[in-house]
Amino acid sequence: MSSRSPRSVLPGFGLSLGFTIAYLSLIVLVPLAAAFIKTSGMTWNEFVDAVASRQVLASYRLSFGISFLAAAVNAFFGLIVAWVLVRYPFPGKRIVDAVVDLPFALPTAVAGIALTAIYARNGWLGFLEPVWGGVVGPDGHVVSNGLVQYLDQLLPGVNWGEWLGLKIAFDRPGIFIALTFIGLPFVVRTLQPVLEELEPEFEEASATLGATRWQTIRKVIFPQLLPALITGFTLSFARALGEYGSVVFIAGNKPLHSEITPLLIMTKLEQFDYRGATAIAVILLVTSFTLLLLINLLQSWTRRHQRA
Amino acid sequence: MKLITTLLAAVALTSAALSKDVELLNVSYDPTRELYVDYNTAFAAYWKAKTGDTVTIKQSHGGSGKQARSVIDGLKADVVTLALAADVDAIYENAKLLPKDWQKRLPDNSAPYTSTIVFLVRKGNPQNIKDWDDLVKKGVSIVTPNPKTSGGARWNYLAAWGYALKKYGSDDKAKEFVAKLYKNVPVLDSGARGATTTFVQRGIGDVAISWENEAYLAVKEFGADKFEIIVPSVSILAEPTLSVVDKVAKKKGTTEVAKAYLEYLYSDEGQEIAARNFYRPRNEQILAKYSANFAKIDLFTIDGVFGGWTNAQKTHFADGGIFDEIYLKK
What Å distances lie between residue B22 and B57, B80, B81, B263, CA to CA? Predict the structure, then answer.
């Protein structure tokens, strides 16, 4: 035993690392690099024109805003779904468990068309539209109030109709619904294994030491779930940001109001403006990479914080 | 049994040696689906009778701009039959797969059939829409796709512009008119089929601005008891253009059959098929035969009013063009 470098007990490190790098390059890095290379042909002014026009800026706000909101809602409800699926036995549990995966499996265009058909004014859930945005007569006057109009009266000064959208399908709420739909399984599937691994002994110890049930949840269970919850949130957020197929059907796609960033990329492509399209894609990539990195740092911080 | 299979194989082999099997890919846009299903059968029969070769035609449909982009990016199309000349121009400009003067190679600007832009309204026409002016009234809700992504929507936009220009006399007035019209548009779908679906199946809008053939198809498909076609006083002559993609066809050795495929559209049979699928045939006699389907409209051309596609594209639909201004200026 005279080898100078300490050897791992498992063989094949060099081989598998090499394979990993080659595989990642081929599948992920090379296509991404192509986007950067295509963009690098632009002058600075062209680049700014392409990525910072008013229309594009509005789409960033919309895409990041609604993706964040959808991921947050998914984090909350996904936690509940995962909890129920792991902790309680009930009839039909397997089926419910399988249903969670449907958004993974369904082609997004199908999801978009189905959601639009259901939430459009003449769809099954079309009755929700006047409940949400009221009824506006042909002359532009509000005939009957919906939630948005009540919000207007409650908190005047904000143009809630513009912010929240008065319709459900073909407006901002539709985008939110589509993004929530496609993001849910990410949260549930990341939380489930962690929940299954939770040792009941901790909860029992906590109870015997006199903690209330709420304290046990808050101080014993939740901290153990937090890293997985953050991962689930992040995955759901990142997925929502790039989502195109389901959203375009339900969004209404009006410039400055309900036009998501991926749609603008498509619009540029339709006009044969490849560089403009990749420029926006690069901005989207860099921003979401930064966000993901920050969230990862936050996650490792919470892990260390817990151990301390 | 063995003998039969041997015989069959021999027959198959010899017939294969005598006549060729050719395959063509026709890259087209959304609403031509039904037209080319009919036409392909007719052409295959014609070609078989003429040369003995069996030709199979594959179809690809989608938004016209997207289809052009696929060809630019390497989809091996022998022929393109797109919604507007600008998209075929793009194939020349971006990939040089066909010559610059492609449009002069076939009669009638390489458009064997034409169409125009009409209105599709709900049965009984509750908003009493008769002409373009009725579209800009307050409270009328219009379905038309986004002209930046849909070829058909560009025709819609230009038809409205041309009407306003003719009636009110200046570009400023026309812009005002078109801006008012788009204020009444609640959904901008990305393609013509999507817009028809929004109008027909989602119940959105009082009127859909649509290709004439698409409007007829919607009425045929969903019933004359639900929808009506309204023909405006003035509209645009839409010329969906087609071309052989020279470089691809040459490489595949299909130049001859590809050319014949497009030329046969000008024949009596080709024109009949176009007319049956609600495209206006160029052939006057066949047009007259189907005149019940094609109302007389005062049609203007894109060359006459807008100075051709290249100009129209640059002024109206490019980034920062008039369509963007309409939405971005408040």
Answer: 8, 17, 19, 17
> Is B94 in Cβ contact with A252 (below 8 Å)?
no
Q: Give 3-state DSSP helix, strand, coil % of chain B, rounded to 5.
A: 55, 15, 30
pTM of the predicted model over 0.90: no
Specify the pLDDT at position B197.
86
What letter does residue A7 receive in the DSSP assignment? P
Tally of domains within chain B: 2
Mark which residues 112-171 of A lie under 8 Å from B by CB: 116-117, 120-123, 137-140, 167, 169-170
Residue A279 contacts residue A39 (beta carbons within 8 Å) = yes
Tell me the chain B residues in contact with residue A267 when contact means C-beta distances shorter than 8 Å: 146, 148-149
Same domain, B203 and B320: yes
Give the pLDDT confidence score for residue A1 in this predicted structure. Answer: 46
Q: Which domain holds residue B311?
A: 114-238+297-328
Domains of chain A: 44-105+185-307 (1.10.3720.10)
Distance from CA of B194 to the nearest CA of A (A): 8
User: How distant is the Cα of A42 from the closest Cα of chain B, in angstroms?
Assistant: 16
| A6 DSSP assignment | P
Residues B189 and B205 in one domain: yes
Q: Judge if B67 and B88 occupy the same domain.
A: yes
ipTM given for this complex: 0.74
| pLDDT digit string, tens, across residues B239-287 | 999 999 999 999 999 999 999 999 999 999 999 999 999 999 999 999 9
**B244 and B139 fall within a common domain:** no
